[in-house]
Specification:
single chain; about 170 residues; alpha+beta; DNA Binding (I), subunit A; 2 domains; four-stranded mixed sheet; endonuclease activity
Length: about 170
């Protein structure tokens, strides 16, 4: 389930169970619902797909401090190699190799397919004549929604900013 803040800003992804608890405690409301119902012994409710919190929750924007994971790099780079565009055998590559002084930062790591990563090896982009399609950067906070759910349901798309959708599509 996609969770929206009170301002309709997407902030998280949660399970159906967590969404149902938030709805039953009146901490959230259904914005989009599925075609089938959730049932218990005493009640039933439409299956939530997108919920909105009733009160505003402050979300820290410390993306630059978030842990760099392979899935987050892949989501930021659209699940494709930044050198050739391949979508299989993805690995991560340090644009400036660590042996040449490059760090493990958002601005130095890109998604690369295994063949491109081997071809580039321990060389600088200029030496290998391999430059990323897009300069690596700190990801938009919405990328982490794509990390939590690589497949984005159609009902979520109106609620996700275009930048977030484009980065992970």
């Amino acid at each position: 389930m996609l969770v929206l803040n009170a301002t309709y800003e997407p902030i998280n992804v949660c399970t159906v169970r967590r969404a149902a608890v938030l709805l039953l405690k009146a901490k959230a409301e259904v914005v989009e619902h599925g075609s089938w119902e959730l049932r218990s012994e005493n009640t039933s409710m439409a299956r939530p797909v997108v919920i909105r919190l009733v009160t505003y929750v402050r979300v820290p924007r410390d993306t630059h401090q978030r842990k760099i994971t392979r899935r987050a790099v892949f989501a930021r780079d659209g699940w494709e190699c930044q050198y050739c565009g391949a979508r299989s055998q993805l690995t991560v590559d340090h644009v400036i190799p660590r042996s040449k002084g490059g760090g493990s930062t958002w601005e130095n790591i890109v998604a690369a397919c295994a063949p491109c990563n081997r071809r580039k090896g321990d060389q600088l982009p200029k030496q290998a004549n391999m430059h990323p399609k897009r300069a690596p950067r700190v990801p938009h906070p919405q990328v982490f929604i794509h990390v939590a759910s690589p497949h984005i349901p159609g009902a979520w798309k109106p609620w996700l900013p275009e930048a977030g959708v484009a980065e992970a599509a």
